[in-house]
Amino acid sequence: MILNQLLVSNPDLASGIFLIKTSLDFKYAHIQLWSWGWIFIILMAVVDVIVVYWRLVRRYHQMQLRHIINELHYIADGHFNHRIPFQLKGQMQRVVASVNALVDSTIKAMEDEREIERSKDELITNVSHDIRTPLTSIIGYLGLIEDKQYRSEEDILKYTHTAYLKSKQMKSLVDDLFEYTKVRQTDAPLQIQSLELNAMLEQIGASFELEANKKGMEINTILPDSPVKIEADPEKLARVFNNLITNALKYGSDGKNIYLQLTKVDEKEIEIRISNDGEPIPEKSLRQVFDRFYRVESSRSKETGGTGLGLAIAQSIIELHHGYIYVESNKNLTSFIMRLPIKHDNVVKKS
């Protein structure tokens, strides 16, 4: 019925079918192979082939998905180094690649979380040790006074003075921890303003001259003729310079000079070097000097004090300013080199 309607409404289709039909007739056997029934059978066969092919493809994709799910269960059971090894085609390969990427990111997040927990435990251990040491001394000396185990007023003054120094050491540790915690926050606020580095370095250098002279050292500033201005937080940047100069006075005291050098690299970047000609940093320690609580072994025997946080704080502040800091050390000179952008919105890339 439907075929008759199609033929009536479309004479060209009827003519085409008639030509095909007459061309397939056996002239000699007078057996007509072409009829409407045959057309229906052929169409049904084509439909069956398409359906079978579609079901086979669907079953194949289902099988691939089952394999992928089994691989995911295997990874979820604790085999975190395993990845789905299949090399498929089309959309299924994209699924495999996405799953592998998701597993990689999940494993990295887990490792980062473990590293954070390890860092917290290490921080608590180090802080507990650094606080307990001066606190034990304070309790000991005050205990001697409390028990009247002193021979003269001079002993009392000596004990109280030692307790006072140890108290200042504890306060310095607490201050450094507070500052370190603040600057480690990626969203830590900076009071950005235009800053003339020439004047700032001269002023900071002058503030350390008396202490340097007591140790037989001299502070030398090497500045360009024209003023160099950058956008930065002056308080934070001064903290960096103070930490580095303090380190130079402590650990480079067997030298004679401390150098504060400012160079304008180009229109976007400046370089600041704080150097000393004292004892060099051992090569094995160069990569660790910016780790928190790290102290170069040779400095421990000098009992120079300090919390081991100064360089970690300096690095964090420089990174907040979109710059970077590194150290070079040889038998002639130890230099802490900072690269900073002139405009705060710019980022200095490590060369």
Automatic annotation (TrEMBL):
Keywords: ATP-binding, Cell membrane, Kinase, Membrane, Nucleotide-binding, Phosphoprotein, Transferase, Transmembrane, Transmembrane helix, Two-component regulatory system. SMART domains: HATPase_c, HisKA. It is a multi-pass membrane protein. It is found in: Cell membrane. GO terms for molecular function: ATP binding; phosphorelay sensor kinase activity. The chain crosses the membrane at residues 33-56. It is an enzyme of class 2 (transferase). Its main location: membrane. This is histidine kinase.
